[in-house]
Amino acid sequence: MTAGAGVPGVADYSGGVTRRARLVAVAAILLCGAIGVISSTQTWLTVVLDDSAGRALEVPGASAIAVLAPLSLAVLALGGALSIVGRALRYAFGALTVAIAVLLAWMTAHVALALPVSAVSATVTEATGITGESAVSALVDSITPTPWPVVTLVVWVILVAAGVFTLATAHRWRGSGRRYRTDDAPPAAGSAGSRPHDAIDSWDDLSRGEDPTA
């Protein structure tokens, strides 16, 4: 017998920890994805041009990293999906979360620390019509970062931790309901008749094209 299996207090505590593990993982991933989307609209860099006017251009996160917004939306989708999928997909989505987080962290760190001309080239080209990395580089006088690249980098580090936490705890998460189970055994024949026909059963009947009122 597993230790604490017959002790209500221990069982309740274990169940609470399991529920909290899923909640923490999903909430952290959703929060990181949401901040990533917000960050993509904020100013990451200010570039001053070496021209007669000395113009200063603001570079949003979506321009500094072209995939920032779509990958942040993908993180949001992964967080939502993790709340309903079965065990096998939890591991797949957890691994995908870690992979996206590492990629975004590397790209964000490169912008935050190296301040590359490539991060501002799209904005400079849009404002001046000048293209080509060497031409844009010659036009740039200075690049100054805002706090957003560093803030976003911290978010991606948290996302890596959330993905690893998902992989470490996914086997203890409980199923999220009959409509979304993919890794549990089907109910034994005749089990549906042992309880009243509820609203979920009616929905399942409609999904199969059956008339629940028949």
Structure report:
The chain has a domain at 14-43 and 65-116 and 145-177. Helix 1 packs antiparallel against helix 3, helix 1 packs antiparallel against helix 7 and helix 4 (87-114) runs antiparallel to helix 7 (148-169). 59% of the residues lie in helices and 8% in strands. It has a three-stranded antiparallel β-sheet. By secondary structure, it is mainly α. It has helices at residues 8-40, 61-64, 68-82, 87-114, 121-128, 133-139, 148-169, 199-207; strands at residues 43-49, 56-60, 140-145. It contains eight helices and three strands.
Order of helices and strands: HEEHHHHHEHH
Instruction: Provide the helix percentage.
Output: 55-70%
> What topology, given as strand order, has the largest sheet?
2-1-3
Q: What is the mean pLDDT? A: 83
Count all strands and give the number. 3
Number of helices: 8
* Terminal Cα span: 46 Å
Q: Globular, elongated, flat, extended or rod-shaped: what is the shape?
A: elongated
How many strands, which pairing sense, and closed or not: the largest β-sheet? 3 strands, antiparallel
Unreliable residue runs: 178-185, 188-194
C-alpha-based Rg, rounded: 25 Å
Strand content: 5-15%
The computed structural class is: mainly alpha
